[in-house]
Amino acid sequence: MIYTRRSIIHISNMSPSREIVEEIDDGVIFLRKISEDDFKFFFRALNNKETIKYMSIGPLLSFRHSKNLIERYLGYWQKNEQYNYVIEALIDDLLEPIGAVSLWNLNWLHRRGEVGIWIKPLHWEQGFGKRTIELIKLVGFQHLHLHRLEAKITTQNHRSIYLFKTCGFKEECVLEDYLFLRGHYHNAMILGCLKNSEEI
Fold first, then answer.
1. What are the CA-CA distances from residue 11 to residues 18, 71, 84, 107, 184 (Å)?
2. What CATH number is given for 3-149 in this structure?
3. What is the pLDDT of residue 17?
4. Regions of the chain short of the pLDDT cut 70
5. Which of 95, 148, 149, 159 is most deeply buried (CB count within 10 A of its CB)?
6. Count of CB atoms within 10 A of residue 75's CB?
7. In this predicted model, what pLDDT tens digit does every residue of 63-86 receive, in sequence order?
């Protein structure tokens, strides 16, 4: 069973009203709105080379750098431009932060947004990523009333591509030299999922 705690706002006089979800869980994975207290977790997690290998941010150079990043995310949240969540997993009856997921690049006119996710390598291949994507789809489609979610992933990141495909995202195209990471250009695959493409 899924539990949510949310505040309801009306964005840009558009109907229907959108529900801004601050917490949601499926009993194993808990997503909660990022907070200023998460700066140490972000600093440590985003200094792992495997975690940030295909990301456009990181490594974080200091606690101040991490705090600035979180402050920027909270600013986006306040303006309804981007929603960042910390992923917590119930492990041995304790909640442990394991990563983060975001709905970003939101376009309210066209009702679409992008999904970004990272999880610490220690917690890979345990089903946490799939649970997280299913929850963020619920937020995007049912609560924010988006019609389309997409992800742009470097074609070398086979793990993430597989994850999104198992969650109902379909490969649409490949953009050449779309991402510039660690001094090199990378092709990016666009994967998309539509609200009416499956039962949400």
1. 7, 22, 18, 12, 39
2. 3.40.630.30
3. 76
4. 1-16, 197-200
5. 149
6. 11
7. 999 999 999 999 999 999 999 999
Residues 113, 88: contact at Cβ < 8 Å? no
Which pair of tokens denotes residue 35? 């907070």
Burial group, residue 188, by CB count within 10 angstroms (0-12, 13-18, 19+): buried
- Alpha carbon 123 to its chain centroid, in Å, reads 16
Residue 18: predicted pLDDT = 87
Residue 149's Cβ-side half-sphere holds a number of Cα atoms within 13 Å equal to 29
Domain ranges for the chain: 3-149
The pTM (predicted TM-score) of the whole model is 0.92
Q: Which amino acid is at 119?
A: I
Residue 122 token pair: 């220690």
Q: What helix, strand, coil percent values describe the chain, rounded to 5?
A: 30, 40, 30
